[in-house]
Design a protein that fits this description.
heterodimer, A: 150 residues, alpha+beta, Nuclear Transport Factor 2, Chain: A, six-stranded mixed β-sheet, two-stranded antiparallel sheet, 9 strands, 20% helix, 41% strand, globular, B: 132 residues, 3 helices, 8 strands
């Protein structure tokens, strides 16, 4: 049974968290392009992805990675039955949004949101955003409920 | 939202709206709370033009032809990812990502993330980020 996209992305996020570059390389397309729109950085190919993960200032504490908070939004492979009773895959970009929560060396936690496009069943484009946790502001008190972040 | 057109917005919001901001743990329930936040944002909230580079990431409605030549909508969750970039009253630019789930053709669930623009390399900016 082929791996579901949900499982694929969970394995992908886990490989990044654990710096499992052997697994990660098998999941990255040879024409991979990654972007960080917040800083305007773009990097191409697996080597660049690996390099920036390895060089992260202070290292990334993989053991604390919050796997339970990882979400994948996107649909599984879609199929249609043609008038000739042939089962056809539907065309269209295989685009997914992954959301995970990661700790950083200073103890802060950030939400990481990636917009990922697959090609040939590999990660071909990744646009990643990093969103810091913050305390609820005073002016919104009374308007909102607070959901414990854990 | 850009124009604070609450009459239009109310028609687009599901009565059971739940809107989450996981970064702070805040949750807004219903249109009234949603509206209050927009109205009371210190300094007037994001400035016009609010949304630049706005993008919607999702497939359009998809249809398939059955063996009997009937056109049927394909099942699927009505989830979309909306990205845009906005400027706040202090002049800073942020990227906003909203994961939206529709129900009854209205906005039913949103999960909102706010990512500040920072200098490259981003890793060093994240390491030096001043929270609060």
């Amino acid at each position: 049974m082929p791996e579901s996209k949900q499982d694929f992305f969970r394995r992908y996020v886990q490989a990044i968290a654990e710096r499992d570059f052997t697994t990660l390389e098998t999941m990255i397309h040879t024409d991979y392009v990654g972007e960080y729109p917040q800083s305007g950085e773009r990097f191409r190919g697996f080597a660049a992805l690996r390099f920036q993960l390895e060089q992260y200032p202070g290292g990334l504490p993989a053991a604390d990675f919050d796997e339970a908070r990882t979400k994948v939004l996107g649909e599984e492979e879609r199929w249609a039955i043609s008038p000739g009773y042939t089962v056809l895959p539907l065309t269209g970009p295989e685009r997914f949004t992954t959301v995970s929560r990661a700790p950083y060396p200073d103890g802060s936690r950030w939400w990481v949101v990636s917009i990922i496009t697959l090609k040939d069943d590999k990660v071909w484009r990744a646009e990643t955003y990093f969103a810091p946790e913050f305390e609820p502001p005073e002016w919104r008190k009374g308007m909102v409920e607070i959901v414990p972040r854990g | 939202m850009d124009e604070r057109d609450f009459a239009t917005l109310e028609k687009m919001i599901h009565p059971d709206l739940v809107s989450d901001m996981p970064q702070s743990g805040e949750r807004t329930v219903g249109f009234a709370g949603f509206r209050a936040q927009l109205e009371q944002y210190p300094g007037g909230g994001v400035q016009n033009p609010v949304a630049t580079d706005a993008r919607l990431l999702a497939d359009a409605e998809r249809w398939a032809i059955t063996p009997a030549y009937t056109v049927v909508p394909l099942a699927g969750r009505k989830e979309f990812t909306v990205l845009f970039r906005a400027q706040y009253p202090d002049g800073r630019w942020w990227h906003m990502l909203t994961l939206v789930e529709l129900r009854d053709e209205k906005i039913y669930r949103t999960v909102n993330y706010f990512a500040p623009e920072m200098p490259a390399p981003l890793a060093e900016s994240i390491a030096a980020y001043q929270h609060g």
